Task: structure prediction
Amino acid sequence: MSWRGLPGVGGSPGPILKKIIRIEVPVDLYPTFNFVGRLLGPRGNSLKRVESITACRIFIRGRGSVRDMEKEEKLRDKPGYEHLNEPLHVLIEAELPANIIDNHLNEAREIIEDLLKPVDESQDYFKKQQLRELAMLNGTLREDSPSWSGSASPFSNSGMKRAKTRG
Result:
């Protein structure tokens, strides 16, 4: 992603650097939690949103990063798929001017680390927002259903909606 046009980038931006951060996914502590689904969101939109906000590229790598386990097994020893022999992890990559790259990487890291904290199903407002978004994408959203319109997500743009009145 190009750094040109990013807010707050004025004057001489300095040299362009490329940095990568690796975050381990705690699959061993929470083996039944769907980390990949939580990170990706409906049709990959949650991850795309984080990438857009932070100007970083985010990659889910390692065992469990491929949806089809048979396909993962076939790919494991092929060139370019060496990461499938490693534990599940997230790579955050940025190629930005030296004066802003660390801020963008840290913002992306905070969001990803927050998403990697398992939450009790009844308190998981982010997942509820993802399910609502999926229903909208599929055309199955019922506006009259009771829903929580806010989000614990750090990159949500939804606000409170006015109650519908009769008449």
Observations:
- The beta strands are 16-24, 57-61, 89-97.
